[in-house]
Sequence to fold (273 residues):
Amino acid sequence: MAQARQSRALIIVNTDFCSSAGDVVLGARRGAKREAEKLSKALSELNYKVKLMHNSTAKEMEDLYQQECSREHGDFFVSIISSHGEEGAVFGSDCKPLQLTQIFRILSPQNCPVLAERPKVFFIQACRGGALDQGVFLETDSGQPEPCSFSEYLRIPPNTAVMFACSPGYGAFLNPSGSSFLQALLRALDGEERGLALSRLATRLNGDVALRFQARGTFEGCKQMPCFVTNLPREVFPFSAMSESRRLLPCPALQGGLEEEEQQPGCKKSLAM
Fold:
């Protein structure tokens, strides 16, 4: 019997930002890189082949997803994005936005047949607005919350689930120890929760972030609530040692792997005025 292909995971973490003119216009995201490295290790231990990218421009991020269309994939495709953001977009290290709809368009069945029947799972740690009070550790990248953004959800490809760190129009918290959202995901991947169906796992993450986390300092008591959107037609078990599809098609255990690259664009800091 031929060996089953490994599932792939793409992790993109942007921590340092500068414009094409070389000016810093978005703040450095302390704690995000170490968090991403821990996630890559956790997924590798769950038999994913992980590609970890640091400080990618918007175009480089788009190209990374395009490259996945020519890869060999296993049962699942998982992607984690950690960056500054606004509603409907994440920022590259060049401070340019990449629309989420463009990512989803690249991975649509028409443009990416290899992933058409495979569940695609996204975890996105990025602001979606600036509705939360601004604290020391609060990422706030864009303006007021937009009253209606549910039309964006209708554009995700089939067999796709997306979990955002926060609700539409709100900011996401980050501190030097990491983000409340991805730290909750790390705990789940390291614990028994990893064997749950994705929908139940998402509910656990919601509760973990909502109940365990609150901002400290000036804005003590501020909270955060993740948001889960899915059009998966069935329950899936992307992090279980024995996933749903593997129950139907047994295969030998696979060793995880890690691909890591880092972009270090040169930039000069600008003084806040």
